[in-house]
Each structure stands twice: as structure tokens, then as C-alpha cells.
């Protein structure tokens, strides 16, 4: 540890949505902070109260308060999506409250929005407040070194796999299809990770479209194609996982065009949060896709039971598995170590680990100067890991159209000619 650094008060807060392991970071940072001579305080509900200039919503954190919380889900400090950087007033309120409390160092725990807010605390604090941000999201879409996951992802995937396996058994037992919507605003890591590990029938993520326009019709036809291909194999059931990021890829106009009558009111409403993001949970995307798939099946003369289910809120406050329990201890410890280093005088940083070593990543190198957010880490759809996932999915492929016998079997499932089947579904795989 660096010597000669004025300790003062160390503040800890949590922003954004929950993720398994938050309490592990809080505990580790609190223990190390106390051991290094800080007075540690935890702010309630992220930046919410501080942005109002309220310096009362905090609690002092001693080692005794946190010694047994690292294996518990949730957050003992709560969380909120308040964006203090949205106005001069809220930023002034925040900095003023921190100054009144004598906070000299701050650990923030959250995703890219919280990271941006933390970077503004460091920038606007003009060196008076040292800032370390611990990246958190079950979406695993933050650009950490190598393949290092964001904490909470492994636990969320672990829990999601058990849920999906149960639903798959229900689908087999009752001869129905499930359409599962997995959390993952900007990337398909969680959807694909759960689907691949649980051997789901099909998984559709935004990245597979490779920058091309994503339409609800194409997603629906991909599901229909999987249903027909399963019928050729003699199976009447299946589970498909859709990443909720498909909503943003389609966009508001794309969603509206897919809805009968052009109104989303039947499936929710378009609402944006403090950071300008669509509140994806306000739109019943699964029900929308179920209705579209059902309608397209009926056009083909098929009827079957489809069930939609959102998968995400069940995962966010799960007790962390050992991987995340260990990982978050590293992150909390690393955050305090960085705050006590001379480097913390020069820049605020995102805390990461690579090859067992703590790597502080300066805010100005991690955040896009135009958007103020992290560049998103997408699923590499050109690598062997995704190639493997696709090989074990059931979906229409070029080979299905090139194999005359297979094309005949597929066409027979909906009583059309092979040419008609090719004209209807060939566009999904670039076959005309």
C-alpha cells in the first residue's frame, strides 16, 4: 500500500440494476477500507439522495457489519438508476454533499451509466475526491481485458441454466414451445451463455445479424423454421431464447411496424430512464413475439401451444456462486488499493483484474467521449465458441435447402412445394 495518503472518509454506493456479488464488493471494500484507516460509509440508493443534496441517507460500515454478507444476493445499500450528471444542479448537489461529509475517496459499483457518473465526480471534484469504479452487470457487455467477465454474470448464467432445464422438461412433457426473453440490453452474452449451457433448441442474439436491420418478422421466421425442422425430426417441442437486446436492435419503429394496428399499447409502453435508455421491461417482448410466431404458424396451417417467459429478475439477486464470491472480494480489495495509490491522484479508474493482477483502467480510456458510455463488448459471432453454439442449435441452414431430400421433408410439414418453401424461408440463410 502507498503511504502518506490522507484517509478521511471512504464512500461506497451502488448504481443500476442488481447483480449477484454486490454485497461481496461492499464487504471487501469495507473491510480493507477499515483496515487501512478509512472511516467507511455506505450511501443508500446510489446517487439518488446525493443528487438532491441530501447528505443524511448513509450508514457507517464497520467490519462487523459486513463480515457475513459476501455470500448473500442483493445489496445492503440498495441501488438506483439516478443520473446526477444530467444537470449542473444535481452535480453541484452531489459534490456539495460529499464535501460536507468529508468524503475523500469513493467506490462506485455499477454498469456504464454509473461509471459515467463516477467519472464526472472525479472530473468535477478537481482532485478532491478519488474515485474507483467496480464494473457490474449480468449482461457481461463491458469491455474488460481479455475474456474477463463482469461480476454477477457467471451466477446469473448458472441460475438461468437451472430454470431453462426445468422449462425444457416441461416443454417435452407437454409438447409445447417456450419463447424465453433473456436480459441483455446491448449484447447477447447472457442469452447465449444460458442457452448454450442448457442445450436450448435455439438462441437468437442481435450480433448474429452483423449490423443488418433486425426485424420482428425475421426473428419470428427463424423460430418458425426451428419448429418445422424439429417436426421433421419427430419432435413437437422446444425452447428458444431471445436476447432482450433485439428490442433495441429493432428500434421503436421496427416494433411498431410488427404490431397489428401499429400500436404498442397492447404490449406495454415506450419509457426511457434517467440515462435515455428504453426501459425494456416495460415492453412485453415475449408476448409480442409469441403472437407474431403464432400468427405466422396459422398462416402455414399449423397450431400449437407457445408460452412466453421473461428471464432476468429471477437472476439478479441470487446468492453468488463461488466464482463471483471470490471475484468480488478481489474487486473490492483492488478498489481500495487503487484509491491509496499515487495513480488515483492522476485519474479515476475502472477496476479490473487480468492474470491475477489488479488493472486500473482510466475513465478517459474506457468511456467513449461522444456518448460518455463504455464501448459495448459484443458476442464474437465469428469465433469457434459461437460456431459451436450454432452447431448444436436447431435452425434452418443453407444445407437444408441444398439437400433435396431434406428440403422435401421440410416442405411437407406445411404442405407446400420445395420451391415454395425456399421462397418463403430461404431469405433467412441467403438462399433465393
CATH architecture of the largest domain: 3-Layer(aba) Sandwich
What is the number of independent domains? 3
Name the shape in a single word. Answer: elongated
Q: How would you spell out the order of helices and strands?
A: EHEEHHEHEHEHEHEHHEHHEEHHHHH
In the CATH scheme, what's the topology name of the largest domain? Rossmann fold
β-strand percent reads: 5-15%
Query: If strands are numbered along the chain, what order do they take across the biggest sheet?
Result: 3-2-1-4-5-10-11
* Helicity level: 40-55%
Major sheet summary line: 7 strands, mixed
Terminal Cα separation, in Å?
A: 65 Å
Number of strands: 11
* Mean of pLDDT: 93
Q: What Rg is obtained from the alpha carbons, in whole angstroms?
A: 24 Å
Going by helix content, strand content and strand pairing, the class is alpha/beta
- Unreliable spans: none
Count of alpha/pi helices: 16
Query: What is the C-level CATH assignment of the largest domain?
Result: Alpha Beta
Features:
432 residues; elongated; Rossmann fold; seven-stranded mixed beta sheet; four-stranded parallel beta sheet
Question: What is the strand and helix layout of this fold?
Answer:
Layout: E1 9-14, H1 22-35, E2 39-43, E3 58-60, H2 63-66, H3 88-101, E4 103-110, H4 112-125, E5 130-135, H5 153-174, E6 177-182, H6 189-197, E7 202-204, H7 216-232, E8 238-243, H8 245-258, H9 285-299, E9 306-311, H10 313-316, H11 322-339, E10 349-354, E11 357-362, H12 363-366, H13 384-391, H14 398-402, H15 404-413, H16 418-425
Parallel strand pairs: 1-2, 1-4, 4-5, 5-10, 6-8, 6-9, 7-8
Antiparallel strand pairs: 2-3, 10-11
